[in-house]
Design a protein that fits this description.
The complex is a heterodimer. By secondary structure, chain A is α+β, with helices and mostly antiparallel strands. Chain A folds into three domains: 4-295, no CATH class; 307-417, no CATH class; 426-486, Arc Repressor Mutant, subunit A (Orthogonal Bundle), CATH 1.10.10. Chain A contains 15 helices and 17 strands. In chain A, strand 14 (255-260) and strand 15 (265-270) form a beta hairpin. In chain A, helix 7 (332-343) crosses helix 9 and helix 12 crosses helix 14 (453-468). In chain B, a hairpin with a 5-residue loop joins strand 10 (438-445) and strand 11. By secondary structure, chain B is of the alpha/beta class. An eleven-stranded mixed β-sheet of chain B has the order 1-3-2-4-6-5-10-11-9-7-8, with helices on both faces. Chain B has helices at 6-14, 20-38, 46-61, 104-111, 154-161, 178-183, 218-228, 266-269, 274-289, 305-320, 339-350, 353-366, 372-395, 418-423, 429-434, 463-476; strands at 41-44, 73-77, 115-120, 167-172, 187-190, 210-215, 261-264, 293-296, 398-402, 438-445, 451-457. The longest helix of chain B has 24 residues, at 372-395. Chain B has a single domain, classed as Alpha-Beta Complex (Amidase signature (AS) enzymes), CATH 3.90.1300. In chain B, 39% of the residues lie in helices and 12% in strands. In chain B, helix 7 packs antiparallel against helix 16. Classes of the chains: A alpha+beta, B alpha/beta. Chains A and B meet through loops of A and helix 10 of B.
Chain lengths: 487, 488
């Protein structure tokens, strides 16, 4: 039997829609789900005589992403026309960037399942305008909706550094998190804010020799699921094809495939790299942009600590679990709120639990973010401190948090009102413990004799103390007293 | 009344001596009489114009503030979008296109209270030097109706020369204002690239196009510039006024330029007809008489201007005209089999031969494998030409040369040989490549009684001085007072 091993090689192209108020080259609003052709003007309709005007905010958002991806930012960048004919492209050319993109040569760190990170190279990031949408639903003809035409689109191209579908998905998810964190894109998959095009091939080692399969590009995927599944499908398909036909990579034999989500297969669209000749040339209607050091500094000020850095820092500094750190950093407002509460003295693990469990639940119910629940950071910090100090139990803290959101009252006040203030005075509790011991000789016997029933008996006695104190005894303190008395 | 200049008319209307409605009426009388012969207009707006005129007269009666062109009937080349009427670019592909907005230059005319007479005929999509490629109409030269009016702003030039308006807007990409102005014996100014907004001007060669005035006098040209010049935020290629402020072009117009230094390029002039050369020499003599210093210079790269232009302009045009596809507006073919046929048939049916020719040329020049040899090379040549001008302007205030190697040629004379047609742009093209302003003013007639034009070029954003230089000549001569006898 021949020895066959293979390595998966994936590079990814991602298109991200920026959340500027207006389009890339005109003042039309960028709004999803509106009546067809209601967010258009002569410019984005490509009417005779119109001219584009660059959206400065879009460029600044784009540069922010370039900086976050550790790219070199070009001092001089320009726009180019990319020509092709298609009904959703009103001018029949797209204003994009060709040979002088605003950024190149960067990298991104992505979290792996193992808890470690991997560095993926970024070849380039550039800006362009999106096309409209063709709808093929109405019988014998197609319809064109140009609301989306002209929306600012960021194109990110990675090095072929991913080696599995899971890794590629991880990169896509990390990018989504990053652009949301930076506030440059909603990256809402339902609204089509992110689209993916993976380039996949295999490096196969068979009987000591190395073979590379032809590269396949899968076009236009708009969910993480489709991304992961199409890559997995391609891996198997390419392996099968190689074993059957022995095809290897040659110049020009890259092919394009589409993903059929219903049948879960990739389908051939274009054989050979008969890539259309886009006849790129510099856009004569727009001035090139000079990103001066001063301007760059101004943009850089809007950079924030990136989510992956935060996540790793929460793990190493606050000893949170990778999972918890990931939840806290899934949204910038939550992470920053968490940090504010810590700054007010809240113990990290406790605050984390409050936020990720109770906080998120309430936020989801209200349809807002955790930071928008209306609790000042020092207010929540107070709750955490009360638990640390033994004034309330962890269970009680959940109730108090919920009530704080509902009533707006302070933690202290609520603890009193709801009778949740914990009894932690050892002296007071000792009396109760002694009473319980006296009343339950059999349990005491089970404990002192050791053995299997010991734990259960202790728990029983603890429960009795809680009953007598109407649940307000600090279980830790009771436990300590029991241990002291019964050994 | 039609012999009044636009400025004189404007002044008399403002003074209450003439009513705009009267002047507009005279214009439309002449249109009724001469349009069947001249064919300068694709569309006219008699009712709307009279209403505009009446409104101006009303403002004057009520002593309300007036725009700089109040009550003056003007014409607009049909490649500038107007929210009224159609904007056809003299093409069947846009024959019924109604623009949803006004070009900025048009807005400025309206804000100046001008009266819009109509949209003038042109070469289709501004591609031509005779107005013969118009897909919709035939325009003739008022001085000899068997000859071309020049192009591509032939309609505007014929309308002005034929006194069927008091001024007009044209567009100039390779000479399309100056050459027809020259052929029709009127004044045509191509401003510096970026001086006038291109927003609403249907694009042909984006890095070359400019809107400019066609008028009977230099003062009228200055008046029009006062209205249309200036930065437009909707046009990213229009110059920031902190870098090149607009001024009042009329204010010092009659002040001659002291110590005027003129350069001429004898090598280049040698290619023009004998009579054109003679007229140029006589014109230069007039300036000598006024104390100007004449220097002979060389501009070695001008020989390559036509080649560079026809690569750059057609490349940009092939892209600019891609949008005419029958999908969103304009002519759409009937019964296409699929969406590709919507494109191919609509364009095949809608575009004329010259437009198709230039789209093919431009597409080729931008194609993979040819881009470097053609388009990129042409851009480099363009820089060299810019260098020639920069060098020349170090030693002189202006350059003078012919506008066209010949006077107006016969209809159909050059139609069969596109290259011959292209070569006639030799004197005007360089100014578009270099972006500098250039004006054509009447400076004589040939033996056949056809007008000859003098072209004056000056450094970027020096229109104020350029107009003064032109005015110096106009004051000394009567060439601009000629009136064509239109053969009915």
């Amino acid at each position: 039997m021949s020895e066959l091993q293979y390595k998966v090689v994936v590079g990814l192209e991602i298109h991200v829609q920026l959340c500027t108020k207006s389009k890339m080259f005109c003042g039309c609003a960028v709004e999803f789900g509106q009546a067809p052709n209601s967010r258009v003007c002569p410019v984005c309709l490509g009417m005779p005589g119109v001219l584009p005007v660059m959206n400065k905010q879009a460029l600044e958002y784009a540069v922010l992403v370039g900086l976050a991806l550790n790219c070199e930012i070009a001092e001089f960048t320009k726009w180019d026309r990319k020509s092709y004919y298609y009904p959703d492209l009103p001018k029949n050319y797209q204003i994009s960037q060709y040979d002088l993109p605003f950024s190149a040569n960067g990298f991104i760190e992505i979290p792996l399942e193992s808890g470690q990170t991997k560095r993926v190279g970024i070849i380039r990031v550039h800006l362009e305008e999106d096309a409209g949408k063709n709808l093929h639903t109405a019988g014998n003809f197609s319809q064109v909706d140009l609301n989306r035409a002209g929306t600012p689109l960021l194109e990110i191209v990675t090095e072929p550094d991913m080696n599995s579908a899971a890794e590629t998905r991880a990169l896509a998810v990390e990018l989504q998190r990053m652009v949301r964190f930076l506030g440059v894109s909603e990256a809402d998959m339902q609204k089509g804010h992110m689209r993916f095009e993976p380039n996949i091939n295999l490096v196969i080692t068979k009987d000591g020799a190395e073979y590379k399969t032809p590269i396949v590009e899968v076009k236009n995927l708009n969910s993480f699921r489709a991304l992961e599944r199409s890559i997995d499908y391609e891996i198997q398909r390419q392996l099968d094809e190689f074993l059957e036909r022995g095809r290897v990579i040659e110049t020009g034999n890259k092919s394009t495939r589409g993903w059929d989500d219903a049948r879960e297969v990739t389908v051939l669209q274009r054989e050979k790299e008969e890539a259309p000749d886009y006849r790129y040339f510099p856009e004569p209607d727009l001035m090139p942009v000079e990103l001066t050091p001063e301007w760059l500094e101004d943009i850089r000020k809007c950079l924030c600590e990136l989510p992956i850095k935060k996540q790793m820092r929460y793990v190493s500094e606050y000893k949170l679990s990778d999972y918890d750190a990931g939840v806290l950093t899934s949204e910038r407002s939550m992470a920053e709120y968490f940090e504010e509460v810590i700054a007010e003295g809240g113990e990290p693990k406790r605050v984390c639990n409050l936020l990720t469990q109770t906080g998120l639940k309430m936020a989801n119910e209200k349809g807002c973010s955790v930071a928008e629940l209306g609790i000042e950071p020092d207010g929540l910090a107070q709750v955490a401190k009360m638990v640390e100090g033994g004034d309330i139990s962890a269970t009680a803290s959940v109730t108090i948090f919920e009530e704080m959101v509902r009533t707006g009252k302070a933690a202290q006040v609520l603890a009193e009102e709801l009778n949740l203030v914990q009894k932690s005075d050892a002296g007071e509790l000792e009396a109760v413990v002694e009473k319980v011991i006296a009343e339950n000789p059999k349990a005491v016997d089970d404990i002192t004799s050791g053995g299997k029933k010991s734990e259960k008996a202790k728990g029983f006695l603890l429960g009795q103390v809680m009953q007598k104190t109407k649940g307000r005894a600090n279980p830790k303190v009771v436990s300590q007293i029991l241990d002291k008395k019964l050994g | 009344m039609e012999e009044l200049s636009a400025k004189e008319l404007r002044d008399k209307i403002a003074a209450g001596q003439i009513r705009s409605v009267e002047a507009t009426g005279v214009v439309f009388e002449r249109i009724e009489k001469y349009e069947p012969v001249l064919g300068a207009y694709i569309s006219t707006f008699k009712e709307q114009a009279l209403a505009q005129a009446a409104q101006v007269d009303g403002k004057i009666a009520a002593s309300q503030p007036l725009g700089e062109l109040a009550g003056v009937p003007v014409a607009i080349k049909d490649n500038m979008c107007t929210a009224f009427g159609a904007t056809t670019c003299a093409s069947r592909i846009l024959e019924n296109f109604r623009a949803p907005y006004n070009a900025t230059a048009v807005e400025k005319l309206l804000a100046a209270d001008a009266v819009i007479v109509g949209k003038t005929n042109m070469d289709e999509f501004a591609m031509g030097s005779s107005t013969e490629t118009s897909g919709l109409k035939r325009t003739v030269n008022p001085w000899d109706t068997g000859r071309v009016p020049g192009g591509s702003s032939g309609g505007s030039a014929a309308a002005v020369a034929g006194r069927m308006c008091f001024a007009a807007l044209g567009s100039d990409t390779g000479g399309s204002i100056r050459q027809p102005a020259c052929f029709c014996g009127v004044v045509g100014l191509k401003p510096t690239y970026g001086r006038v907004s291109r927003f609403g001007l249907v694009a042909y060669g984006s890095s070359l196009d400019q809107i400019g005035p066609v008028t009977r006098t230099v003062a009228d040209s200055a008046l029009m510039m006062n209205v249309i010049a200036g930065h437009d935020p909707a046009d990213s290629t229009s110059i920031d006024e902190t870098i090149a402020p607009v001024c009042d072009y009329l204010e010092k117009l009659d002040e001659p330029v002291e110590g005027l230094r003129i350069a001429i390029v004898p090598q280049f002039n040698a290619g023009a007809d004998e009579q054109v050369q003679k007229a140029l020499t006589s014109a230069v003599e007039v300036y000598k008489g006024l104390g100007a210093e004449i220097t002979e210079i060389e501009m070695p790269h001008l020989d390559y201007a036509i080649a560079a232009y026809y690569v750059i302009a057609t490349a940009e045009a092939s892209s600019n005209l891609a949008r005419y596809d029958g999908v969103h507006y304009g002519h759409r073919t009937e019964n296409p089999e699929d969406y590709v046929e919507v494109y191919s048939k609509s364009r095949a049916e809608g575009f004329g031969k010259e437009v198709k020719r230039r789209i093919m040329l431009g597409t080729y020049a931008l194609s993979s494998g040819y881009y470097d040899a053609y388009y990129l090379k042409a851009l480099k040549v363009r820089n060299l030409i810019r260098g020639d001008f920069a060098q020349a302007f170090e030693k002189c205030d202006c350059i003078m040369m012919p506008v066209s190697p010949t006077t107006a040629f016969r209809m159909g004379e050059k139609l069969d040989d596109p290259l011959q047609m292209y070569l006639s742009d030799i004197y005007t093209i360089a100014a578009n490549l270099a972006g500098v302003p250039a004006i054509s003013i009447p400076c004589g007639f040939d033996e056949k009684g056809l007008p000859i034009g003098l072209q004056i070029l000056s450094p970027a954003f020096t229109e104020e001085r350029l107009l003064r230089i032109a005015r110096m000549f106009e004051k000394q001569t009567d060439w601009h007072k000629g009136k064509p006898k239109i053969k009915m």
